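Protein modeling request. Please complete all fields; requests missing the sequence field cannot be processed.
Requester role: graduate student
Desired output: 3D structure, token encoding
Chains: 1
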Amino acid sequence: MRRMRKGWLGGLIIVVAVVVVWLATLWLSPRGEGRATGGEVGLVRIEGTIVDGRETGGIFGAMSGAETISEQLHEARRDPRIRAVVLRINSPGGSAAACHEIAAALGALRGDGKPVVAFLGETAASGAYWLASQADRIVATPATLTGSIGVIMELQNLRGLMDKLGIQVEVIKSGAHKDMGAGWRALTSEERRLLQDMVDDIYRQFVQVVSEGRGLPEAKVLELADGSLFTGRQALEKGLVDELGDYELALRRARELAGLPAGAPVRALARPSPWEWLRSSLDTAYSDRYRLFAPGLWLIAPALVPWEGGGA
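Delivered output (312 residues):
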């Protein structure tokens, strides 16, 4: 009986050691290197408000962080399996600086010869359209709300409310404009001019990005860049999207641009949970580089079978 317990324990230790080594090899190996034949289409989702930093979610809705999205695009750029990327967009827009960061990652991806197709879902407005315009092709549904090319800055003047509540704010500042935009007072005419100059500059950047991305004259873009929203069908007529269709059409276009077969798989580019990563690793265990190694796990299976040897 004691020998049988030792057999179980020894076998379990061997199994754990082999599995740990195997999973570590999977984790540390370059993603996509020899683990699948052919090519794949990478899927990057841009959902909710586009912000700087990491992707977040919560009771106030999802936010797409520029850092997170850029990492996914850089991963697609490095991974030799991924031959094209589909941006699935459902966003009202967001930070211009965040859009600049993501657009730079898109440019690097396309510069390496990997085409990008943008699929516009329910909404792809303002900064979301900024990013879509950087794709090789844009597919929208007829009812998509897109466009809204423009820049807005919103400030609150709570002076009247604060007076009613008897709230006074004492400010000590190093310069005349250090508290510009503070909610406890109105803007001065000089501050309004400075902020308007900032908005106008970002607006010019937006127009230039769309003009270059879509191959449209700036004069044409300026005609459309008054902040107006367009349906997908209207956007097609105005040259802001390339065709109308669904997500499957966007995938088909991505495969065509990359020279991939119709059945080329799609892989969502997102950092998986530990369980999702383990499941994905197990799914690919028998492909290419690991198909000869994984069956070796069965060689140690007998160690798990209770046995009784000679002796006391």
